[in-house]
Design goal:
This protein is mainly beta. About 10% of the residues lie in helices and about 30% in strands.
């Protein structure tokens, strides 16, 4: 049994493991995970003031008018490894100069309403610190509602929850959300080489599980709260949260459209 949805939007999956320390249940009055917005605050570098402006005639590709975030929507960075950043470019495509970057859990990023379709990618213009730049749409999404799946995850893992580090535990939990591999669809987990077992207090590993042909729910952000063992034992799971990552949009209650 896995937690996953049967329809997927992209033909790949990226799992970005973001390491951060956190006191279990902090910022959450009811302990159900409302502190997500605080953890995923906007932490982006400013776009270079010298970035060249682009007109519609200058832009690569053609205007994109398909499903996705609309003008004024606030998106988050998704699927970027904890030790990497998402480049902001002066135009839509990797041929344009990098004028800034966004951290892996940057949030509250405003979409301007401009988007371009290239041969193999879609690019969105975003506004940051009063300037505009372009990012690959594969790495942005709308964070929806949060579910507490602690009981289900612990039940599924059972005695198999042993992990040598916090990172291993976070990846182990994330693997529960990998979907159906039938029909030639390949799912994979990209782990990063970070040993979190040296942390002294309760900590959290955030993993983005993304991929598919579904343009409603394009993946999940999995946050595993755990306490490193004081001895030689594995970390112990305290809480697991799943956040929907939406593409078309979402309701006021955080349900993907």
């Amino acid at each position: 049994m896995v937690f996953a949805q049967t329809r997927i939007r992209r033909v790949y999956i990226l799992v970005a493991v973001v390491l951060a320390t956190a006191v279990v249940g902090s910022g959450c009055a009811d302990g159900t995970g409302s502190d997500l917005a605080e953890t995923a605050s906007t932490t982006s570098s400013s776009i270079a003031a010298t970035a060249p402006s682009t007109t519609e005639q200058d832009l690569a590709g053609v205007p994109y008018v398909g499903p996705g975030p609309r003008e004024g929507d606030l998106v988050s960075v998704i699927g970027v490894a904890h030790d990497d950043t998402l480049p902001i470019r002066s135009g839509p495509g990797e041929s344009y100069a990098v004028v800034g970057s966004l951290e892996p859990v940057a949030a509250g990023i405003a979409v301007t309403g401009r988007a371009q379709l290239l041969d193999d990618s879609i690019w969105y213009e975003v506004a940051i610190d009063g300037s505009a730049g372009w990012v690959d749409a594969s790495y942005i999404g709308l964070l929806g509602g949060v579910e507490d799946l602690t009981a289900q995850v612990v039940t599924l893992l059972g005695d198999n929850a042993a992990a040598d580090s916090m990172l291993d535990l976070g990846v182990l939990v994330a693997r529960l959300f990998i979907g159906d591999e039938s029909g030639g669809r390949v799912w994979a987990v990209e782990a990063v080489d970070v040993d979190a077992s040296t942390l002294d207090g309760p900590s959290v590993i955030t993993a983005d599980v993304i991929g598919g042909a579904d343009d409603s729910v394009i993946g999940y952000r999995i946050r595993t709260f755990a306490t490193p063992s004081s001895g030689d034992g594995p970390p112990e799971i305290d809480r697991v949260e799943r956040t929907m990552i939406c593409w078309r949009g979402m309701t006021a209650d955080g349900i993907c459209l």
